[in-house]
Amino acid sequence: MKKRLSVLVVGIVIILFASFSVSEAYPFIEVEGYVLPDYSTLFDNGDGTSSLDVMYLFDVAYSAGGAEMNSLSVEFEKDIFVGYSFTLSDGSSAWVDPSDWTAIIDETPDSYYVLASGGTTIGEGESIRGMLNLTLYTEALTNVSWYDSSDILHDWGEGQIWSQSWMAGDTLGGGDGGSTAVPEPGSILLLGSALVGIGLMGRKIRMAGRR
């Protein structure tokens, strides 16, 4: 089982990178990625780390030739993120919408990767969103970079707090990539009104493994 999972992970990574390479010449989709940390769930663990629920939202802003998003990868750098949980702060399960997408976690010495695939493909004007609970260094909530007591540098690799690298693949072999952005306060209010219902529905994310 472990071997099959490893082969699957490697396969998805290869597909994502191949899609990203093709997109340099054939940008079939343009995707906008956002992160919405729910600071009302923020909990100080008392060990220099904090945990909170975080929502990720990816909109397909443009599509050519009928291409639709069918895969997604989001990076979580280990010098920022300590861990993750598929149980939210209120005890409910992590979720994704559309609910027929499946996500697995891959891990390298430097980062965690959430690798997701459909399921229902995402066309122009449509979006995919999901929420999980993350644990990160408390310092990362207010500083883009800092040195810890061991003189080790921690920094948000994309240059801004909550800015994370992502890649998306599409049904025509193209794709897009970039960094997540935290929406402006006004946008958060608009998004929030649409997302509250989804969050209350508590759609479960189908995971290949749980921690």
Could you characterize what this model shows?
By secondary structure, the chain is α+β, with helices and mostly antiparallel strands. Helix content is 18%, strand content 45%. The chain contains two helices and 13 strands. It has helices at 2-23, 185-201; strands at 29-44, 49-63, 69-77, 81-85, 95-97, 102-107, 111-122, 127-137, 145-147, 153-155, 165-170, 175-179, 206-207. It is globular, with a radius of gyration of 17 Å. The relative contact order is 0.25.
Short description:
The chain contains 2 helices and 13 strands. By secondary structure, it is of the alpha+beta class. The protein starts with a helix and ends with a strand.
β content, as a range? Answer: over 45%
| Total DSSP E strands | 13
* Average pLDDT: 82
Radius of gyration: 17 Å
Let me know the largest β-sheet: 6 strands, mixed
Give the H and E element order.
HEEEEEEEEEEEEHE
- Number of discrete domains: 1
**Gap between N and C termini:** 17 Å
Trace the largest sheet across and list its strands.
Answer: 12-11-3-7-6-13
Low-confidence stretches: 1-25, 186-211
Helix-and-strand structural type: alpha+beta
**How many DSSP helices?**
2
Helix % is: 10-25%
| Outline | globular
Oligomer: single chain
Features:
211 residues; alpha+beta; five-stranded antiparallel β-sheet; 2 helices; disordered N terminus
Q: Helices, strands, pairings?
A:
Elements: H1 2-23, E1 29-44, E2 49-63, E3 69-77, E4 81-85, E5 95-97, E6 102-107, E7 111-122, E8 127-137, E9 145-147, E10 153-155, E11 165-170, E12 175-179, H2 185-201, E13 206-207
Parallel strand pairs: 6-13
Antiparallel strand pairs: 1-2, 2-8, 3-7, 3-11, 4-8, 5-8, 6-7, 9-10, 11-12
